[in-house]
What we know:
It holds the Pfam family DUF222. With 464 residues, the chain is of the alpha+beta class. It has four domains: 207 residues, no CATH class; 29 residues; 35 residues, no CATH class; 105 residues, no CATH class. Helices cover 50% and strands 12% of the residues. Strand 12 and strand 13 form a beta hairpin.
Amino acid sequence: MNEAVEALSETVAELATSWQQAAPAPFAPFPGEHAGRELEAELEGMTDATLIHTLEQLQCVQRATDALRVRVAAEIGHRSRPELGPERLCTKQGSTSAPGFLAEVMRVPVGEAAKLQRLGERTATGLSFTGAVILPPFPAVAAALAEHLIGTDAAALIVRMLEAVAPRADHEHMRAAEDALVAAAATLSVADVAQLCRLWRDRLDQDGIRPREDELRHQRALTRRTTADGMIELHASCDPESGGVLLTAIDAIVSAQLHANRDNTDPALVDGRDLAAMRLDALVDIARHGLGCDNAQPALRGATLMVTTTLGELTSGIGSARIDGVAECISADSARRLAASADLIPAVLGGDSELLDLGRTRRHFSRAQRRALALRDGGCAWPGCPHPPGYTQAHHISWWKRDKGRTDLSNGILLCSGHHHRIHRDGWQIEIRRNVPWFIPPPNVDPARTPRRGGRIQIDTLAG
Length: 464
């Protein structure tokens, strides 16, 4: 062990010297407390090539140090094995386990310490009772670590995968997989190595794919909680099949929107949402589609979003409203926007909470009217929006409550959730001219208020 420590220490020293020589003199690799500003100045003065080379050399130093750390962690684990009882190293140091003691000394999470210990044990050379050398269980990984070709994260991934499939995999096939993974880990990112490990796992243990799939499926879950500021947090754990279906649907909507933004030359029409917001809105649009779809599951066809507010608040847009099942209030303005959906029953209360109106059939656009709007608008009528009709809401151009708007085709328009929000939030106006929707921006978006043509592009309306 001492020889290994000395050899690795010499390697670290050599790499540090090489790194220092590659940097502009007088560059100090390990600055004192007063050298911070000087170090920053030297870094800023490096060329791109020198900076990258410096980082590469530092990574070599890190790998050399990690190789030594896993050996030391394994030795501490060996001296802390349970059969030693009170003489365990960790026990004498006041800790109940080797990983706990390592975590305390190295100031790292217990999981990280345990990973280093396990990796060290599985890549260390041992001695039998007769004094014969016992090769490590994973010699290719051990050699790559000793030669500083791969890091501990990649090495741990490879070892963990090979151990998992060992009971059912062919020995020669495992050796081939280990060699291939070690060679790949020398040039690939840790994420790529993880993906390769999964592919090799399924190649080596094909009989285990179905049990793993079933296990993951049993772990699927969707949890929800309301934060102190009223946000509803959803945390989903999806098995591969469920996640694939969900992500495909979300990504299709988001991808189409990104393409529309890329092709849009009018800055006023570019979607300003970040990717995270676009994904959430896509999920909401999918849910809206399910609630309003003719072929929806019976449970969805019977589901109703109930929003409660007062008549005065709904009319003025000032005040609050409540959604059944949601703890946080929404604004009356948001309630009016929700009221444009045919899948909502607005419960309007008087001053004494007297139920005045629980929705009227003529309040909402009929399915026949929605089909006519879809024929005219092609989907979301916002210029360049790719959302199909199934992911839109029928919106009153002249609002139902505020403007006493009629539920006529001439007063209807299809909008997706994101653009419905934008219309209400930013104050865009909509006009229907010769059966074509036009969007007029507010002055803060376009002082000239130049109308933007929306809806489906048709040959007979291009000249309009």
